[in-house]
Structure formats: structure tokens, C-alpha cells
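Entry for 2-acetamido-2-deoxy-beta-D-glucopyranose complex. Fields follow.
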Amino acid sequence: MANMATIYQLSLLVMSCCIQAGRGGSCPTLDCRFTWEKPGEGLKHESCLLHVRASAKSQSEEELAEPSSSSDVAPDRVYHVTDGSSTLCLPSLHPPRGSLIKPKCDLHHFPPQPADVQWAASLTDSALSPAHLQADWLSAAIVSLDGGLALSTVSRAATATSQSNVVLSVLSKTVSVRTRLGDAVLIDCQFWMDPLSPLSASGFAVEWRYQFRGKGHVVLAYDGKMDRLADAQQEGATLDFASLHATGNASLILQEAKAHDSGTYICAVHLPYLLAQVAVELEVVEPPSLSISPSPLPLAVPGQVLSVQCSASGFVPLPLELSWEFRSVDGATKALGEGSLSGHRVAWDGTYTQSSWLELDTSALGRGGELVCVAHHEGRTRRSRVALEVIGFSTPTIEDSMAMVGVALVLYGVIKLAFWNIAERPMSRKGVRRYGNTSANQRFFSCFPNV
Ligand SMILES: *[C@@H]1O[C@H](CO)[C@@H](O)[C@H](O)[C@H]1NC(C)=O
């Protein structure tokens, strides 16, 4: 760990090159909200302004950028920050004039304190000069929804001055991530620490926490000073450690997205006594697999009611809309409603299953066509089809009639022949019983001589 300082210098270099090539001056001012707690009165909010400079060099430009100060901001709520990482200057934090979606920026005082988690405990092992901590510490949390970017910085101002320097900055360029089930996921998080600050020389710790509906756990925690991973590590979750030490790339890698991985992921970076964190939403989305049963459908006669089931399985998240359609031979589509829906069930892998039953009345469906099960899920639509054949429908054609007459004639002949045979056989076999005027019945019974 002796070459840490070099690594941080390098990371400074890389980050400033990537993010802010050549730009060393002031950036547009950020409109923020300052929040503090007033004893007995709870949280208070006040508008404030954040003037940002990308590096400490260009003192003269500060005057140039000096406020055109909005009248509703108190002079002591105007902050000046020098950001060596230049992340506060990222274009997506400064939308063009007139843009309706503005980044959300929150400032508050930051009280430096030792971390209360075990993987960051080593950072404050050796007592640092408390004099350095005695300053005005300011934390800024900025989310730009259109840019999909979340940023959190901690900066230090010598007591009673308004000029502060960013010491730690944590950034995610993707505040919401969507993935298919089973895919590998990268949840972006980059951090920067001021190489000139004595705090950055003592190492860092990274922690990823997961939260969903009030529940949470630690996904992964890494003590960068001791180069040690905490035991509580979620299976399949990892970091790229080389890139973490080289460039502050703390992105979380999930090897295979599972249904229950959807939720909020918090990337927290500890420096001794300091902490900055950003939150990223992960949504695992998988459309359903559909199957219709019975398949193929049995032949139906007009007026027959068929019971058909469509099962949707393997989808996340809820809800799902199932419905039925009928597409006739000539291509016309008719909606058949949603049928009777089952409730959803959760499968072993956390995905959902849901079914719809349809009592399909074939009387208005002509000669048939295609029965379609339609599933609407998260903006995507899936369909499953099965052929439906209705037989004996409609008035017969001339050929059909002729054929039917033919069949009838043949049948008649066959029956006639059978009766004739039955009637004649006993006589020819025994030649004993003879009846002058036997009725058909008697002739029939004469087949069984002993009756
Ligand atoms: C961070 O590391 C991951 C994993 O190696 C990589 O895919 C990603 O591109 C890196 N991000 C940056 C900004 O370097």
C-alpha cells in the first residue's frame, strides 16, 4: 500500500482527463436547497447557491463567475466549492437554460465521525490530527434525472470561510438500471478523493447495500486499506479490484440477475471520518412465457363451448395483463376479453405465474381461425396462438350436397343389404322354419332359432 499516493495521483489524472478534458475554470452555478435541523423545530430548508470551480488554479475566473446572485438567496447561503474531480461540472448537472427538469441538489452540514461499520474501522485506527477535522464540512447530494446521474460530495472549508474543497466525491452515471433475468449486471459507481487531503492517504472502504421495501442487507463490503472483503458477501456479487484501486471504479458486478435482485443499491465510500453515497435502482424485468392448453385444440362443432387455458410463467415484476383474441380466417381480429384470471403464484426462482381460463363459445366464430392469448407486461406484449377449427359450419356447397346424397344412398344400400342377409340366412341354413307372412320383427328373431 506504499504506492497509494501514486495511485491516487493517477486516479486524479484519469478522472480529470475523462470527465473534464482541459476545462479548468468555473462551471454554471447550481441551485440547491440547504437543509438543517433546528432544535425543537425539526428540519428546515432554505434556498442556496453552489458556485463550482473545477480546479484551484484559476482564482481570477472566480470573480468573473461571481453571482448574478438571485435575490431570494441569503448571502450566507452562497457556497463556493472547488472540485478537483470536476464531477460537479458534468454537463448533465447543468441543463440548458429553460430546461424544465433541473437537477435536484441538497446541501447540509456534514459532521465528520469514525465509521461505525467494521470494514471501515481500520481507516481510523491511527488517530489523525483532529485539527484537520475542525472545519466546516459540507455535503452535497445531486441527482439529475434526465442525465441519469447521481452525485454525492463531501467538501471542507476552513472554519468561517465560504470557500471549500471537495475531498470525496461519489458518482453513478446510471441511477436506474434495467436487466433481463440471468444477465450479468454492472451497477455503476465511481469515486474520487482529493490526493492533497491528509484523509485520502489513509485508505478507503467501499460498501454496497441493498434495500427493498424497508428490508436490506450488505451486498458486499471491502476494506481498501487492509485489502479485505467482509464475510457478509452476496453470492455472485463482486468488484473489479484492480480498477477500484487504479481509478476509483467501485462498480458492482452481479454475475447473474435474479428476480429478487430488484431494488435499491447504495454505493457508499468511506474515507477516515467521511462518508459519501449514491443510490441506484435496479429492475429485473422478464416478460412471460405463454402456453395454451389444450394444444392443438380439438375440432369443434358450431355452438360447442371449449375450455381453454393460457398460462403465463417466468415473469417479473407484477403486474401482468392477460387477454384473448380471435383472428378469423380472413384476418379480422375480435377481442374476447380477459377470461377468468387466476391469482399470481410465486415460483421457486421468485418469478411469477398466472393463468386465464376462457370458455370459448364457437357459435359466432365461423369456420374458425386462430385463438390468441395476449400478455401485456412492462411495455412489452407477447402472444401465443393456437389454430381453431370449427367443422360442419355454414350451408353446404353443391359438391358437399352431392357427396352427402351419395353417402346417404350408399348407407341405405348397405343397411338394406344387411337386413336382407339377416332375414334370409336362417332359411338357407336350416330350411326348416317357414313362415308365410312373417313380419320384419319375426324375421329378425328368426336369426336366433332357440328364442
Ligand atoms: C468499471 O469496471 C467495470 C468492470 O471491470 C467496467 O466494466 C466498467 O467499464 C468500469 N467503468 C469505468 C467508468 O471505468
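NOTE: Helices lie at 4-20, 59-64, 130-133, 241-247, 398-429, 440-445.
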